[in-house]
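Fold in tokens:
===
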Amino acid sequence: MSYVHGLPCEASFPLIDAHIHLDLYDEVTRERLLQELPNLGVEAVIAVSMHLASSQVNHALAERHPGLVFPAFGFHPEQPIPADEEINRLLDWIRGHVGNMIAVGEIGLPYYARKEAEEQGAPFELEPYLTLLDKLLALARELDKPVALHAVYEDADLVCDLLEQHCISRAHFHWFKGSSSTVQRMAERGYYVSFTPDLLYESEIQDLARRYPPDRVMTETDGPWPFEGPFMGQITHPAMTAEVATAWARIQGLPPEEAAAALCRNARSFYGL
């Protein structure tokens, strides 16, 4: 495979970026990136949202790039909880655009914000986030949509509890990290996880890739979040999922083409593409 600016010129297998924040790229970079995708083998990207304005941007991008951008609408938990009026406006907007969305997401719990507050000795109230997540999961159940989740370590167990309460089985834990018992619980319930480019250099993620059921895993970038290792200094691009697929192939002892096809098939199955 040949490369331009560190990215493959063409992929020998299909790729899907199952979790990316398209709205967080600057407009010029975003449009260049989207124009490049078909020639790089990227069949689809799941564009998750931060809040109402973010959802509206992703909705517009999906309209401009049909069959390539599939938007998920939600509220990212690593930010302050908005007023009830704003929350209700988001929920109503999502209901009004259910035919244009692939999932409810990104939603979850604020693990990193809470840990930062604890390190600084500042108070942090988790209950409002649990209440909001409960509302968003109820909405996903109402609309019969899968959920794209931000829930790591001990937060994942709280989220699993809520998923069970709402009888939601179509759950995607993106960039997951957690205990062996939580991993087992998630796998037993058929939840999906996805791997970012840090699969190439993070032992914790490599271990998860060895243990998690191969028919419940996908590739993602969480772009524009930057990566280290061989990706240091590069703009995060959905085509990096080719490297993720190749790394997972090595871990699983599979030919790269076979592994990539399985990862793509998993994403299509979960998101109904």
Notes: The CA atoms of residues 144 and 225 lie 29 Å apart. The first strand starts at residue 3 and ends at 4.
